[in-house]
Specification:
By secondary structure, the chain is α/β, with parallel strands linked by helices. Helices cover 42% and strands 15% of the residues. The structure holds pyridoxal-5'-phosphate. Pyridoxal-5'-phosphate binds next to helix 3.
């Protein structure tokens, strides 16, 4: 055995995305104590950078020490109690996971379903809110990575608020790639991931709770069923004034990486990053059309950072993806759930969203498909 040396890959799938040399260098810096005053100072800056990325002033804004799925679980276990009703929108694989979270808590799940590839239909959501007065929360996926569809988060959060429900928003793939406006939307609980459009390695899940969500947490009748994700305990480490108490040992070097990745996003500017993702999506769209490949999602709901391409008649699913990887070093994603075998997913996320990467994947696709 010897030290592991990963091959060079261009990561154009649904995440992780390529990590920039600057972020990789931050990971190699010396590990210091998780209660060291200098580390605590870095944590405060990291929270401020996250607030900017989320466009929020919510005080409870921090990264959960685990991947995006953990941010999802943290939102549900902190806000939902056994017996509550939660309306979950399912238009892809991740909405299905939200439902799993609700059911495992012992709460009632009302599903609002839309076809994979379509955005969440606000009219159906409004009807479900009317039919279920007293629902605790409305949960939906802003950027469905399994299908490439974007839903109208501002409208869905407003509908939830008008009906007295909390909004729980998955923007794991949204943050850094398309507008995420937590305060303007009035989103109550939102989570993201480090490895999609933020282009840090996987393993952290930025999360933000509104005052309304914090009040709901404080008003719980039962203890949060997960000790690790109990935000009452987690915040004692992330914001204890003067006296931060040990909860778990923070993933120190990973937090350096997220800090650096957010700093890069801040230097570029959110609007500039959104515009870059949009421009590279258009370049890819046009190039795909030129070789006769179609996108699954209707134009108005397309995510620029996740392009779901219909596998053409007669082509197989795994073969071309394997050739992209073996011959060109390019990873693209397979279809998930009911889209397995029907689509490929080309991600243009964060550091990877560049014109030269678009051209590389288009050139490689032309070769492997013989077009
Ligand atoms: C990737 C993703 C997740 C899960 O994140 P992990 O870091 O893989 O746990 C959740 N929701 C969406 C929409 C995602 O794209």
């Amino acid at each position: 055995m010897s030290s592991f040396s990963p091959p060079e890959r261009l990561l154009l799938g649904p995440g992780p995305s390529n990590v920039s040399p600057r972020v990789l260098a931050s990971l190699a810096r010396p590990t210091i104590g998780h209660l060291d005053p200098r580390f605590v100072g870095m944590m405060d800056e990291l929270k401020a950078l996250l607030q900017r990325a989320f466009r929020t002033t919510h005080r409870l804004t921090l990264p959960i020490s685990a991947p995006g799925s953990a941010g999802m679980e943290a939102c549900f276990v902190n806000l939902v109690e056994p017996g509550d009703t939660v309306i979950v929108c399912r238009n892809g694989v991740f909405g299905g996971r939200m439902r799993e979270n609700v059911l495992r808590i012992g709460a009632r799940c009302v599903l609002v379903e839309d076809a994979f590839g379509q955005p969440v239909d606000p009219a159906k959501v409004e009807a479900a809110l009317k039919a279920n007065p007293g629902a605790k929360a409305l949960a939906f996926v802003h950027a469905e990575t399994s299908t490439g569809a974007r839903s109208d988060a501002a409208l869905l959060c407003r509908l939830a608020r008008e009906h007295g429900a909390l909004s729980i928003v998955d923007s794991v793939t949204g943050l850094g790639g398309i507008p995420v406006e937590v305060d303007a939307w009035g989103a109550d609980a939102i989570y993201s991931g480090s490895q999609k459009c933020l282009s840090a390695p996987p393993g952290l899940s930025p999360l933000s709770f509104s005052d309304r969500a914090v009040e709901a947490l404080k008003a719980r009748k039962t203890a949060v069923q997960s000790w690790f994700f109990d935000l009452g305990l987690v915040t004692a480490y992330w914001s204890g004034e003067g006296a931060r108490t040990y909860h778990h040992t923070a993933p120190i070097n990973m937090l350096y990486a997220l800090h650096e990745a957010l700093l890069i996003l801040h230097e570029e500017g959110l609007e500039a990053a959104w515009a870059r993702h949009h421009a590279n999506h258009l370049r890819l769209r046009d190039g795909l059309a030129a070789i006769g490949l179609d996108l699954l999602v209707p134009e108005a709901a397309r995510l620029p950072q996740l392009n779901t391409v219909r596998i053409p008649e007669g082509a197989d699913d795994a073969g071309p993806r394997r050739r992209l990887l073996d011959e060109f070093g390019i990873e693209v994603g397979a279809g998930l759930g009911e889209l397995a075998g029907k689509v490929w997913r080309i991600g243009l996320m964060g550091h990877g969203s560049r014109p030269e990467n678009v051209d590389r994947v288009l050139g490689a696709l032309r070769t492997v498909l013989g077009r």
